[in-house]
Design goal:
Blueprint (H helix, E strand, L loop, with lengths): L2 E2 L4 E4 L3 E7 L9 E4 L3 E6 L2 E6 L10 E5 L2 E7 L16 H105 L1 H15 L31 H16 L18 H13 L3 H14 L4 H13 L3 H14 L8 H17 L3 H14 L4 H22 L1
Parallel strand pairs: 1-6
Antiparallel strand pairs: 2-3, 3-8, 4-5, 5-6, 7-8
Helix pairs in contact: 1-2, 4-5, 4-6, 5-6, 6-7, 6-8, 7-8, 8-9, 9-10
Protein name: Dynein axonemal assembly factor 4
GO biological process, one term: determination of left/right symmetry
GO molecular function, one term: nuclear estrogen receptor binding
């Protein structure tokens, strides 16, 4: 008979349920996890953890990570609200039996469907690989044939050009030879007759020929120079469709409202000093405590400031940093998400604050081994600050971890 695990822990938000089950020295390969919308089982012989959930969850989006001796399960709620408890009452045995049977039947059907899908996917991948190989071979054959055809055409063209050049050369030599023969035959007689009949004409022709042969005086080239070109500066305003003035004005309006939204009428705050009722003073105090490593004191300062003013995103973001140091990972995720909700609309004035909130939430998710979700936050931070080399290195490390996990799952 299996030993039931009783020392599990669980936390929740409006939309998620997180359960941590200690594996008591069991190896990751020996852990069997079964999850449906209303039933959860973690079996690692001789131990067994069963949970008949208080309300249904989305089992298609549920995830489980095994590491550091703990099985961490994240279950998205179908109805966004806080549960009174994790499981249904223990006295309803018939209902538990029916839920267990339905879960096993659903799991068997899901395994059968996944097996068929994997087989079909493998067959399709084989077909695709075969088609791709045949396509590559055909492209290689076509490339080789094209190279042969191009080389043949090139050689043929060069041969034809050489033949044409030889024919033209022979024709020119023949023509030149015939011209020389005719000139040698008729030139002396004509020149002699011309001089005898018109002596002045011959003299004039020789004078004109000498003039033509005389060198012509050309002007010297102009000296080089540089032309300075200046452009009129662009002083007209940016087009209205590219302007972010409305978002900037909305952000400034929200900041002004946040400064005015101070709740100093709470009963527990009446005994405080005047400066202790100022959320800005409390924020500076929390920042100093965080810098000295006193994280609990910083959390207390931020808690009191948030009671006074819940519209300052810096309070939630800084408290998330404290929770990260204290390993309160789920609280760090909640505070970072709250800070991002308050940092809207996204404008240049709050870009750095949004990047910090994304990094803190992504770090908490990665600490919970939810690397894919954490990578999304790091990519959002890189979108805001793409030149940050530290963020680029962290994102690359997370991608490597995800790739290694996928390779281990395939093996």
């Amino acid at each position: 008979m299996p030993l039931l695990v009783e020392d599990y822990t669980w936390t929740q938000t409006d939309s998620m349920v997180y359960i941590n089950v200690p594996l008591k020295g069991a190896k990751a390969g020996n852990v069997d996890i079964l999850a449906t919308d209303e039933y959860l089982k973690v079996h690692f012989p001789p131990f067994l953890f069963e949970a008949f959930l208080f309300e249904p969850v989305n089992d298609d989006r549920s995830s489980a990570k095994i590491g550091n001796g703990v099985a961490a399960l994240a279950l998205p709620k179908i109805t966004h609200k806080l549960w009174e408890q994790l499981m249904i009452p223990n006295n309803n045995k018939e209902k538990k039996k029916a839920i267990r049977e339905r879960a096993l039947l659903k799991h068997q059907e899901k395994v059968a469907v996944e097996s068929k899908a994997k087989a079909a996917k493998r067959q399709e991948e084989k077909k695709y690989a075969l088609r791709k190989m045949m396509q590559l071979e055909q492209e290689e054959r076509d490339t080789i044939q094209k190279m042969k055809d191009d080389e043949r055409e090139k050689v043929t063209a060069e041969m034809e050009a050489w033949k044409q050049k030889q024919r033209q050369k022979a024709e020119e030599e023949l023509k030149l030879k015939s011209q020389r023969t005719s000139q040698e035959k008729f030139k002396p007689v004509k020149k002699l007759a011309l001089i005898c009949m018109f002596p002045c004409v011959g003299q004039r022709c020789s004078d004109e020929a000498s003039k033509k042969k005389a060198p012509v005086d050309l002007p010297a080239p102009r000296s080089a120079g540089n032309i300075q070109v200046t452009f009129t500066p662009r002083v007209f305003p940016t087009a209205l469709r590219e302007s972010r003035v409305p978002e900037e004005e909305e952000w400034l309006k929200k900041q002004a409202e946040a400064r005015r939204a101070v709740n100093a009428d709470l009963e527990e705050l009446k005994d405080l000093k005047e400066e202790e009722k100022n959320p800005d003073w409390l924020k500076e105090k929390g920042d100093k405590c965080f810098a000295t490593g006193n994280y609990m004191a910083a959390v207390n300062a931020y808690n009191l400031a948030i009671k006074l003013n819940r519209k300052m995103p810096a309070l939630f973001s800084n408290r998330a940093a404290c929770h990260l140091k204290l390993r309160n990972l789920h609280k760090a995720i909640e505070d970072s998400s709250q800070a991002l909700d308050l940092l809207r609309p996204p404008v240049a004035a709050n870009a750095c604050a949004r990047a910090r909130a994304h990094v803190r939430r992504g770090t908490a998710l990665c600490e919970l081994q939810l690397y894919v979700e954490g990578l999304h936050d790091y990519q959002a931070a890189l979108t805001i600050d793409p030149q940050n080399e530290a963020l680029q290195a962290d994102a690359q490390r997370i991608r490597q971890i995800i790739q290694n996990d996928r390779c281990s799952d395939v093996v």
